[in-house]
């Protein structure tokens, strides 16, 4: 459970800080859902820190792609 709550909270805060007008909760939930699937598939090889780092990268990439539009 902690493996999902930590990145979710981190992503919501990160998205709110970076771009308040973008739907940050939607981005965070999508990224956490992807990371939950990924961490379930590779449970032995992934830690909470890696989930947070990869989730942050996903959020930044989504925000940058929206910035270009």
Summarize this structure as a short list of keywords or feature phrases.
membrane, transmembrane helix, single chain, 69 residues, transmembrane, 3 helices, mainly alpha
Q: What does this entry look like structurally?
A:
The protein is an all-alpha fold. It has one domain (2-68). It has helices spanning 2-18, 24-41, 48-68. The model has no long low-confidence stretch (mean pLDDT 67).
Largest sheet: none
Please state the structural category.
mainly alpha
In DSSP terms (H or I, runs of 4 or more residues), the helix count works out at 3
Helix content range? over 70%
Domains counted in the coordinates: how many? 1
Keywords: Membrane, Transmembrane, Transmembrane helix
Transmembrane segments: 45-64
Topology:
Layout lengths: L1 H17 L5 H18 L6 H21 L1
Helix pairs in contact: 1-2, 1-3, 2-3
Keywords: Membrane, Transmembrane, Transmembrane helix
Summarize the structure.
By secondary structure, the chain is mainly alpha-helical. The protein has helices spanning 2-18, 24-41, 48-68.
């Amino acid at each position: 459970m902690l493996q999902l709550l930590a990145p979710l909270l981190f992503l919501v805060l990160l998205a709110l800080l970076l771009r308040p007008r973008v739907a940050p909760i939607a981005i965070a939930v999508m990224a956490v859902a992807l990371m939950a699937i990924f961490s379930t598939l590779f449970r032995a090889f992934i830690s909470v820190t890696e989930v947070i780092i990869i989730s942050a990268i996903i959020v930044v990439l989504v925000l940058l792609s929206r910035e270009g539009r």
